[in-house]
């Protein structure tokens, strides 16, 4: 299922948080959204998983305007890992993962054998099977993050929306999660702060600055020294990864520009 943001604008209390954002994630593609803190990435994602309704513009999934799709139906299509996702209640890991099936359940129906197998598979894939009976409140940040990704996979969505999914993850789990995203046939829109991991993972990149799309294209098209300087205010050298051919950015601490770049359009 493809995902299309068409001139999405979000205004809150007179502030434009996202302006005229148009972005397409083709079926099965992984598109990364990058940009400085406060540039509107999470706000854009919230419009996709319907935590927020755009003030103007349309979000379409499979050609249908999400604003007109019943919530139960879109909950089956779209799984989200939000920045502040999770629960304050001490469910077990297995229970939280099984909650991913909620949009598919009617009444009090118990999980089928296939659904339980799906949960076990996701827990094994995210390396949390050994934590199945632990309360989620006792987990480390990275363990909890992996539980939430497993819950999203168990939902068997067509579209996966993830806001900084590598938060709290050690380097092995970051690589494992992003390899999983790269290998999946799902349509994925993911916010990432690590530009090198974004370049290695994503088919296409959208760069937000000041709530607007500053650039979009393949990682090689987008990640140039000029762009990184203009958008992030940082000097970087772009090299090609010797094994994968992906563009990778080398930074030097001495090159940090402490004056923040001016948001586009101001
Ligand atoms: N309800 C609100 N009222 C006013 N401003 C808001 C509201 N929600 C978000 N903002 C502001 O909108 C801007 C965009 O926020 P958003 O969370 O989308 O940024 P982001 O690019 O995801 O940032 P980060 O990289 O720090 O997670 C920020 O400056 C934020 O303070």
UniProtKB/TrEMBL annotation:
Keywords: ATP-binding, Nucleotide-binding. GO terms for molecular function: ATP binding. It comes from the Bacteria. Pfam families: ABC_tran (PF00005). Residues 3-235 form the ABC transporter domain. The keyword Cytoplasm does not apply. This is ABC transporter ATP-binding protein. It comes from Plantactinospora solaniradicis.
């Amino acid at each position: 299922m493809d995902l299309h943001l068409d001139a999405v604008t979000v205004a809150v209390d007179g502030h434009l948080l996202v302006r005229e954002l148009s972005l397409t994630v083709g079926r099965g593609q992984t598109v990364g959204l990058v940009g400085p803190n406060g540039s509107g990435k999470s706000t854009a994602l919230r419009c996709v998983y319907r935590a927020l309704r755009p003030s103007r513009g349309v979000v379409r999934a499979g050609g249908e305007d999400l604003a007109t799709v019943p919530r139960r139906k879109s909950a089956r299509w779209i799984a989200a890992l939000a920045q502040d996702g999770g629960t304050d209640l001490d469910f077990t890991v297995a229970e939280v993962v099984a909650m991913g099936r909620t949009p598919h359940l009617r009444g009090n129906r118990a999980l089928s054998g296939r659904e339980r197998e799906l949960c076990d598979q996701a827990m094994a894939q995210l390396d949390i099977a050994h934590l199945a009976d632990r309360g989620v409140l006792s987990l480390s940040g990275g363990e909890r993050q992996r539980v939430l990704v497993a819950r999203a996979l168990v939902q068997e969505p067509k579209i996966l929306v993830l806001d900084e999914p590598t938060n709290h993850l050690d380097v092995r789990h970051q690589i494992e999660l992003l390899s999983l995203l790269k290998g999946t046939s799902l349509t994925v829109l993911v916010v990432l702060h690590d530009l090198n991991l974004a370049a290695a993972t994503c088919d296409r990149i959208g760069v937000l600055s000041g709530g607007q799309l500053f650039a979009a294209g393949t990682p090689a098209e987008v990640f140039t020294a000029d762009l990184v300087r203009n958008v992030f205010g940082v000097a970087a050298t772009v090299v090609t990864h010797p094994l994968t051919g992906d563009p990778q950015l080398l930074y030097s601490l001495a090159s940090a520009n402490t004056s923040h770049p001016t948001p586009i359009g101001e």
